[in-house]
Amino acid sequence: MLQREDKTVCKRPEEELKETNTPLLLPRCKLSASRHQQYAAEGAMPVLPALESGTADLGEAHWREVMGQTNPSGRYSFVSGVSEGKFYVATGQGRDKIFYNDIWVFKFRTERWEKLPGQPQPSFLSASEWNGVSQFAYSPQARYGAAGGIFPGSPHLYVSMGFSKQRYYDTVVYDVHQRSWHSEFPCYQCHPYSVTYPHARCLHSGVMVNSEELVIFGGCLTGGGVAGPCPSGDSWLFDGRSKLWTKLQDCVMPSMYAAMAMLPISTGERRVVLYGGINKTPQVLETVPTKENEIGLLNPGSGLWTRRKTLSSQDTYPSKRASVAMATGEEGVYMFGGFETEGCVII
User: Among 38-42, 197-201, 244-248, 257-261, where is mean pLDDT lowest?
Assistant: First the structure.
């Protein structure tokens, strides 16, 4: 059982690092790091073929590349999510430090990309008139390193904070039914000393815990005209109905480039898994990094974190890594890629 000397961070230290049989599922897909980077550079879409539930093993699947006549520009550190049979991608950073504020949808049925408008064309304007003024319609500022996503079945894609020329405080939403951006938390006069909303940041983790609630954790709060811990260890919940932020319990180790995903709701209780990330930067003098078999587990209803040690039937675990992709499956959380925090080896 892992232990930590500082017992003051978690309100319930006796619950630290409980063993859990929550599975971290690793599909054994044969995709090299260089090929993975090529997809990101070319804007291609690597997809897994459709699997019939209960009849196929994900380990037997293979990757294939889908390229269409229209594709998003290659990018990384974007916000994405899947809802109603469609995969959405918004914001991100491309080559030569180009930042994006666009949004694209990939339709699994047709296997085609489509660029979505920032705002719909008003009925009282002709196409030519709209082309002349559409550039002035509301869209978020271009950025990378934001958090957010779309809850399955929801029409709202959230994008929260991030960085380009500055760290952003705002949270914006794209309505995929109305095809329009709107600001959920504009924060025109925000400052880093408030206790009612989070400090501006980038490279933080985030996940939608229902259709209108976003949880964020950690990230880097330094740079872009602001100062703060990098990495940070605070977590917040944003309610899109009340437009308010709520600070959650401090417990897990500060990190950036960590990943978050919802566990499947099998018992009727919502739980968020936090995994990996970078715990140490030049700003950190001393810390105790999280282990490769350690996760954070959040109850978004109570706002309480616990630290858990995962179990393995063969006592093997994925190497500790950062910037991974995680997704919710029927039996657990799937994880792919990232880079090892020791040596920065792309996986």
Answer: 38-42
92 — pLDDT class (breaks 50, 70, 90): very high
The pairing of strands 235-239 and 259-262 is unpaired
CATH of domain 68-248: 2.120.10.80
Residues of the chain with CATH 2.120.10.80: 68-248
Q: What is the band of 45 on the pLDDT scale with cuts at 50, 70, 90? A: very low
Question: Of 222, 244, 220, whose CA–CA distance to 234 is shortest?
Answer: 220
Place of tokens 């998003």: 72
DSSP 80-144: EEEETTEEEEEEEE-GGG-EEEEEEEEETTTTEEEEEPSSPPPTTS-HHHHHHHGGGS--PPPBB
Distances (CA, A) of 188 to 139, 163, 169, 185, 197: 15, 16, 8, 9, 13
